[in-house]
Amino acid sequence: MSIEILRESCIGCGKCTTVCPGTLIRLTADGKAHIKYPERCWGCTSCIKECPCEAICFYLGGDLNGLGGKLTVRREKQLLHWTVKKTDGKLETITVDGRDSNKY
Ligand code: SF4
Ligand code: SF4
């Protein structure tokens, strides 16, 4: 599991640096987020959900989507739009209402 930070999209807000439980992400001198050891990421997705501009994507394993697929999240108030970009370029979006997170 690992993430990719899209530096051209990062606005340097620092939110990802504060939510990562492993303190894996830092801001570099140019104010962009950077993950030095992506292999240490365990895929909790916290940083992806906090990023306000979809500058972090998550690599999906072969069991979920095939190697190379990527997942991003766009937040819209309580709604989280999870979009998978498949290796063939197709997009698939699932929307989750955050208010339903703890319903079982
Ligand atoms: S997915 Fe979780 S563990 Fe990985 S970099 Fe983001 S916050 Fe850290
Ligand atoms: S949360 Fe997103 S925009 Fe903010 S520093 Fe991290 S990658 Fe950049």
From TrEMBL:
It comes from Aminipila butyrica. InterPro entries: 4Fe4S_Fe-S-bd, 4Fe4S_Fe_S_CS, Fe-S_Ferredoxin. Gene3D superfamilies: 3.30.70.20. Residues 1-30, 31-61 form the 4Fe-4S ferredoxin-type domain. One of its GO terms (molecular function) is metal ion binding. Keywords: 4Fe-4S, Electron transport, Iron, Iron-sulfur, Metal-binding, Repeat, Transport. It holds the Pfam family Fer4_7. Coiled coil: none annotated. This is 4Fe-4S dicluster domain-containing protein.
